[in-house]
Amino acid sequence: MKETLYGIILAGGVGSRFWPLSRVTSPKQLLKIAGDESLLKTTIKRLSPLIPQRRISIVTNSAQAEIIRLHLYDAGHPSEGWVGGRGVELVVEPFGRNTAPAIGLAALKLLQKDPDCVMAVLPSDHLIARGETFRRTLRAAAAAAREGYLVTFGVIPTRPETGYGYIKTGGAIKTLNNIKVKKVERFVEKPELKKAKRYLKEGGYYWNSGIFVWKAGKILDEIRLFLPSLYKNLLSIQRGAAIEEAYEKMESISIDHGVLEKTEDIAVIEADFPWSDMGSLNSLKEVFSPDRDGNIMKGRVVDIGSKRSFIIGSDRVVATIGLKDMILVDTPDATLVCPRDRTQEVKEVVDVLKKRGYAEHESHITVERPWGAYTVLEAGDHYKIKKVMVLPGRRLSLQMHRKRSEHWVVISGAARVERDGKVFMVKENESTFIPKGAKHRLGNPSRKKPLELIEVQNGSYVGEDDIVRFKDDYERG
Amino acid sequence: MKETLYGIILAGGVGSRFWPLSRVTSPKQLLKIAGDESLLKTTIKRLSPLIPQRRISIVTNSAQAEIIRLHLYDAGHPSEGWVGGRGVELVVEPFGRNTAPAIGLAALKLLQKDPDCVMAVLPSDHLIARGETFRRTLRAAAAAAREGYLVTFGVIPTRPETGYGYIKTGGAIKTLNNIKVKKVERFVEKPELKKAKRYLKEGGYYWNSGIFVWKAGKILDEIRLFLPSLYKNLLSIQRGAAIEEAYEKMESISIDHGVLEKTEDIAVIEADFPWSDMGSLNSLKEVFSPDRDGNIMKGRVVDIGSKRSFIIGSDRVVATIGLKDMILVDTPDATLVCPRDRTQEVKEVVDVLKKRGYAEHESHITVERPWGAYTVLEAGDHYKIKKVMVLPGRRLSLQMHRKRSEHWVVISGAARVERDGKVFMVKENESTFIPKGAKHRLGNPSRKKPLELIEVQNGSYVGEDDIVRFKDDYERG
Are B170 and B66 contained in the same domain? Predict the structure, then answer.
C-alpha cells in the first residue's frame, strides 16, 4: 500500500511587504490578490483533488490562528467546491521561529497519526497557475519522497528574474511520469541581473519555490542530524513540555539553511508551471497583465502618461501624471507610493507605522467575519460608526457590551434582534437601540438578501474588545 | 477731496490646477491653503484697513455666486476682525469671459456710484505677505491712478522664477512715499530658466502680479478705445439688455492682452512684498518651508528617503519611499501623484474626471455650510450616511424632504428638533426619526458646544436637491 500524502501549509507570516493591502489582521495569505478567493483558500483548493481537506494542516502562530480559523468558514464569497475549511487542522506555534521549527512540529504530529506518511510542505501565499501540472508534479515528488529523497520543487525559469533564489542542478536521478528528478548541486541566493541572465542561458538552474515533499520521518531524522537542539526541543513538546518554553529556546532558522543545504539526500523536481512567491508589491505584475505602456491600472484611476507603473486603486479616485516605474497602492485608509525597485522597503514603512502606533498597520477599515463584515465609517473617542453586513441566514454571537450602547438603523434587508430575551424584527428604514449592558444578538433571517445596517456606538470606551460572548455559531470565546 | 478707493476682487475661477484640494464647489479662493482662513477672506481682510468692506465688490459668476455668498457668512472659523462679509457686494456675471469683461462690468457699476472713483483690481486667490507694505504700495498706486495712469503692480523678483510673467520697465516716472512708479517697456510671457536668470541679474524686470489700480472712468475709456465691441456690450447691459445675451456676444479676453499691452498710459509700481499667484500645486512651496531634504510633509506621512517632494496628506496615512521632485496630495476621497514640473497638467486630470462623471471633481466629502458642516461617510442608491456638525447657536433651515426619511443619532452635544410643529430636545446617545414629508428643523441651542450627530437617510432618492426650504437664517432659496 502507498504511504498516505499529507499537506502542510505554512501560514505564519503577515507579508508586511504587501502593506497597505496586507495588515496584521489581514495577512497576505488571506488577501484576494489573485481572484475571488484568498491565496490560502486557493492553496487548499489546489491540493484538494489530490489531498482531501482532512489530510491538510495549516501551521500558524497564536496571533493568527483565530483569524485563519474564522477565515476558513466560508464568509459568503464565491467559492465553488469549498467545504468551509472544515477538517483542515490548525497546528499552532506560540510564535514564529522560521520554517525549520514549523516543519518539525508538523512532522512530529503527522508521525503520530501515520508513521510512514509523506508530507508536502507548501507556502500559503504563493501564486501558482495550472493546478493540474502542479498536482502531477506533486504526485511525482511524492513517489521520489517515498524512496527517501528530500524533494524540493524547482520551477523552470522563464525570464532572468532577480527576485528569486535559484537551485543549480546536477545530473538526472530519474524520470517519473515524464517529470525529471535531479540532483542538487547548490542553492544560489537572489542573483544580480547579469548572473540571472547567465543562469537562464546556461540552463540547469531552477527557481527555488519553497515547496518541499518528504517523508515526515525522514525530515525529522535530518533535523536530528543537522539541528540537534531543535530536535530536542521538539521532542520535549511531544513529551508534554510547555510549547511556549520550548519555542523560547529554539533558534529561528529556515529549513533551507538548517537542513537542505547540508543534506546528501536532497533532490529537485522540475516544476513546469507559472509560479510567483509574491515577495513584494512588484509581484503584482504576475497577477495582472500590463498594458502596452507597461502599466497596470485597477480601480478608479485617472492617468496621464505614466510608464511601467502599477496603480492599484479601490473606490477612491487616484490620479497620476507621468509616473515612471512606480507603484501606487491605494486602500480606503492608506496610500503607498514608491519606485518598483524599492518595494522591499515597504516592510520598513510598516515598522514606522507600528512604532508610531498608527492603527493602519493593524487592520483594514473593513473587517470580514464568518457572519459577514463590518466597515468602520468614522471613529472618535466616545463614538464609532459602523456599516454592518450580515449574510443571509447568519447571525452574530449573543453578546453584551459593558461600556457602550448601540443604535442600529437598517438600510437594507431586515434584522432579527434579540434584546434581553425579547425577540423582534427591525425592517428597512427602522431603528432600534441596544442599551449598555443589554444581552443582545443580531441576525439575518433572510435566505437570500444580505442585511445592511448602520451602527452608531456611544460610550466611554468603544474598542472591539468590550464584548462578552454568551453563545456563538463560530465558537469564539 | 480725494477720489474714493474701491476694491474689486476677481473670484470667478475654480483653480482646477489645485485639484484634489480644489473642487467646483470649493474653488481655490475658498481654500484655507495658507492658514486658518480662505484666500478670499484673507484678500478682503488685507484690504480692510484701507478699503472698508462696503467699498469692496467681488466679481464672480452665477455658478459660484451662492457658494461665495454663503462662504462670506462666518462659518465659525477663527476669524479675528471679520465682520461676516456683510457689506461686500457681489457682481455676478452669467459666466466667465476672462478679466476684461469682468473688470469692465465692475467699472460701469462703480461709475454709477462714484464718477471719480479709483478701483483696485485684485485676484482673490493669490498669496501676499506683509499686508502693511501691500497697503502702502496700494496707496501710492491710487495716487498715480488719480493722475490718469493705469497702474500695474510689479513685484520685485527674488529668484529666477519661470512660473510668472515679467514686466520690463522703462524709466522712473516718479516716486510716491518712497515707492517707485515706472514706465512699462513691455510685458514678457513666462520665460525659460536661462532668461529668468538673466532678468534677475540685469534688473529692471518685475513679476507681473495681476493687481491693477486705475480710475473706473479711465479703464472704460481704454476699453472703448481698444475693445469697442466689449464696450458696446457692456453699455447695452447698463441700458437694460439681458446680461446673458450681452455676455454671449463678448469675446473672452484678458485685460492684459486687450488693453494693457496696447495703451500708452500704463505704469508699473514697484511692489516689495512676498507674492505668489498660487498657479499650481507646486506653489505650495510658497506656503510651507521645505525641510533640509527639500521636502514638505503635512499630515500622517511616513516617508523613507524622498527628496524635494511635497507630500500633503490629511487624516489618512500616506507612505512614500524614494520620491524625487514629486507632489502627492491626498484628500479623503482622492489622491494625486505627479512630478513637480507637471502640475500644470492637473487641469487635464480634472477634465477627465468631469468627462467620466466622477463626483470627485465636483465637491469634497466634507461640505461647509454657514450653520456648520457635514461629511458624507457613505452613500448608496437609496441611503446616505452623514456626520452633521452644527455650530453653537446656529440652525439649519426649516425644511422638508419629499423622497427620504432621516434618522438622527446625537453623538455629541444636544439638538433642538422641530418636527411638524412639535419642538423637543435630543441629547447625546439619543435618537429621533424624521419621516418623509415632515416639516423639520435642526438647531444647536448651546452657546459653546458644537452639536454632532449621525444622519442616516433612507429613501427612493437621496440627492441634496430634494429639499423644500420654508425659512432660512441664511436666505437660501
Answer: yes
Q: pLDDT tens digits for A213-260?
A: 999 999 999 999 999 999 999 999 999 999 999 999 999 999 999 999
Residues 6+ apart with CB under 8 A from B291: B297
Contacts of B428 in chain A (CB under 8 A): 458
| Co-location of A370 and A268 in the same domain | no
Domain residues for B319? 281-358
Decide if A477 is inside a domain.
no
Residues A174 and A32 in one domain: yes
Asked if B98 and B252 count as a contact pair (C-beta separation under 8 A), the reply is yes
Helix (H, G, I), strand (E, B) or coil at B247: helix
| Boundary (domain end) residue, out of B358, B392, B421 | B358
Determine, yes or no, domain membership for A476.
no
Q: Roughly what angle, to the nearest 10 degrees, separates helices B131-146 and B39-47?
A: 60
Enumerate residues 332 to 371 of chain B having a beta carbon within 8 A of any beta carbon in chain A.
Answer: 333-339, 342, 345-346, 348-349, 352-353, 356, 358, 360
Is the CB of residue B357 less than 8 Å from the CB of residue B24?
no
Interface mutation vs chain B, best among A335, A374, A412, most B CBs within 10 Å: A335
Question: Would you say A452 and A391 are in contact if contact means Cβ atoms under 8 Å apart?
Answer: no
For an interface test with B, give the residue of A321, A340, A347, A376 to mutate (most B CBs within 10 A).
A321
A117 in Cβ contact with A216 (< 8 Å): yes
Helix, strand and coil content of chain B, in percent to the nearest 5, comes to 30, 35, 35
Minimum Cα–Cα distance from B356: chain A residue: A302
Take residue A180 and report the three cell numbers written for it. Answer: 525529471
> What's the structural domain count of chain B?
3
Q: In the listed set B276, B298, B323, which residue is the last one of a domain according to the structure?
A: B276
B288 and B215 part of one domain: no
Chain A, 7-66: which have a CB under 8 Å from a chain B CB? 19-20
Helical H segments across B163-266, by residue range = 193-202, 216-226, 228-238, 243-249, 255
Over the stretch B232-242, which tens digit does the pLDDT of each residue have?
999 999 999 99
What's the whole-model pTM score?
0.92
Task: Give the ipTM.
Answer: 0.91
